[in-house]
Design goal:
Length: about 280
């Protein structure tokens, strides 16, 4: 069983450590995952002047799309539990010229905002990683004004996401990490059929729409894939740090073989990807 307090401390540390990698890779990652961000923003049904909260914003790009929709009289609250990620988002906003955003370090499980203070909440790949996602969804509904909308994304099953799952599955096979607990926080913790609907209903949301978005994650080469995943994935960073030099070589050889079905004739690598998405009203 996961100890919630220990998990929260560890999670904050690994995301602080990963922030620089996300900043390095943010342009490519956002361009390839933009279909997900677009779905989340479109299903918020935003109006000019709205106040939008993004939870677990990371570099902030999904929220910055929302910032365009709400105009200069609207406000985006870009937040993350990692102070370093919030700084990354600030720098990203400056690059993009986003002027209607404010930045906060917020814990999604207990959002430090007044009740009924925002019109919309979005969270791309965040709730699934929380120690208590049920509490986070209830608090999301608390801060939403009556009739306000929320959207979220959570990864579908590992088989539909080989770019994410190949390395983590290999760590388990090599005895570097334990098999994932289906009930524990993680990328696929919302993937079971009906799970998202159940969570949103339990939190009191209505008008629930659960769907899926398919897209492609592309890399220049096997080496590029390995380097990008090492930058972006806390699981990969921790697992690689536990490998001896000999095991590292074996890991790379096995990984290269495992992803060979996705390697194209020119050596580039293209993975199919699928995320679940949901929209609901408070």
């Amino acid at each position: 069983m996961v100890n919630p307090e220990e998990y929260r401390v560890t999670t904050r540390e690994v995301w602080e450590d990963a922030a620089q990698g996300w900043e390095r890779r943010r342009d490519r990652f956002q361009s390839q995952t933009e279909p997900v961000s677009r779905w989340l923003v479109e299903h918020l049904e935003l109006e000019d002047g709205a106040t939008v909260l993004e939870l677990a914003a990371g570099p902030g790009d999904t929220g910055f799309l929302a910032a365009k929709e709400i105009g200069p009289l609207g406000t985006l609250i870009s937040s993350d539990g990692s102070p370093e990620m919030v700084e990354v988002a600030k720098r990203r906003a400056a690059e993009l010229g986003v002027s209607n955003a404010e930045f906060k370090v917020l814990e999604a499980e207990w959002i430090d905002l007044q009740a009924a203070s925002v019109d919309a909440v979005l969270c791309r790949w965040g709730y699934m990683l929380l120690a208590d996602p049920e509490a986070a969804l209830r608090d999301t509904r608390r801060v939403l004004r009556p009739g306000g909308r929320m959207t979220l994304a959570a990864w579908d099953v590992p088989a539909t996401n080989p770019a994410l799952s190949s390395m983590s599955q290999l760590f388990v096979e090599m005895g570097i990490s334990d098999p994932p607990d289906p009930g524990a926080p993680g990328p696929y913790s919302f993937a079971a059929p009906g799970r998202l609907q159940e969570l949103l209903e339990a939190a009191g949301f209505t008008d629930i729409d659960v769907s899926a978005v398919d897209f492609t994650l592309a890399f220049k080469s096997r080496e590029d894939y390995f380097e990008v995943q090492s930058d972006l994935s806390p699981t990969a960073r921790v697992g690689l740090g536990k490998l001896s030099p000999a095991d590292h070589t074996r890991f790379r050889d096995t990984l290269d073989e495992r992803i060979s079905p996705y390697v194209k004739d020119d050596g580039s690598v293209e993975f199919p990807a699928r995320t679940l998405v949901a929209a609901a009203a408070a």
